[in-house]
Amino acid sequence: MLLTHARIETSLTLRNGEQILLTLLIPLALLIGLTLLDVLPTGEIGTLPKVDWVTPRIFALAVMSSAFTGQAIALGFDRRYGVLKRLSATALPRWLLVAGRMVAALVVVLIQVIVLGIVAALLGWSPTGAGLAEAVLLLVLGTLSFGALGVLLGGWLRAEIVLALANIVWFVLLLAGGILLAPSALPSGAAAIVELLPSGALAEGLREALVNGVLTAKPIAVLAVWGAVAGAVATRTTRLT
């Protein structure tokens, strides 16, 4: 039941043009543009090849796009059109409805990382092999954390509000949440806040893993706390209609 539900959710996501634009085409365009154009603070990059600095952050953006923004919008409109209400009347338990979406999100993230990784490799990306396992762990944890946040948002508010709010949060976290600008490029007070956001924690954790081959405890703790809190609240606030 879980695999069937996850396969259907994955298929629906990959057949949705707006979802493909959000989850793949925009991160792909940013990966190429930020690598080839001089629009990043060169002091933050230092002597590191630009593509090595950009790629982990684009991975974080891809996770946020699919697991949070796409998840929240899809769930909001599924509630509006009565999809969840009808599914709840079947043999599918409520926990499996959420688990199927999480598995589907992991599959979509896997596809995103493969495509983005191939393009990054063509642009000269060369990650350190010592940090690949750590990066996989962060990607899984980031997907689950952002997925819980997406379920929280999409299962609580009206679909129109979810659509607007999810996109606003996406833009805010992209510009000021530690993805395009690293915490070290921000004032100390702002940097401390950004490092505690799931976007900043995931981006910095992936950079450390793929560039330096190390895994620090802070990004894992931040993502785990966000995921646990969002999941706990979502179980109390998510409505079928």
Provide structural commentary.
- The longest helix has 31 residues, at 50-80.
- It is built from 11 helices and no strands.
- With 241 residues, it is mainly alpha-helical.
- The protein has helices at residues 2-14, 17-36, 42-45, 50-80, 83-88, 94-122, 132-154, 159-176, 188-194, 198-212, 217-237.
The outline comes out as: globular
String of helices and strands = HHHHHHHHHHH
Number of helices: 11
Distance between the termini: 23 Å
| Uncertain ranges | none
List how many beta strands DSSP finds.
0
Biggest pleated-sheet summary: none
% residues in beta strands:
under 5%
Specify the helix fraction band: over 70%
Gyration radius, rounded = 18 Å
Average pLDDT across residues?
89
Features:
single chain; 241 residues; mainly alpha; 11 helices
Secondary-structure topology with pairs:
Layout: H1 2-14, H2 17-36, H3 42-45, H4 50-80, H5 83-88, H6 94-122, H7 132-154, H8 159-176, H9 188-194, H10 198-212, H11 217-237
Helix pairs in contact: 1-6, 2-4, 2-6, 4-6, 4-7, 4-8, 4-10, 6-7, 7-10, 7-11, 10-11
Brief rundown of the structure:
The chain has 241 residues and is mostly helical.
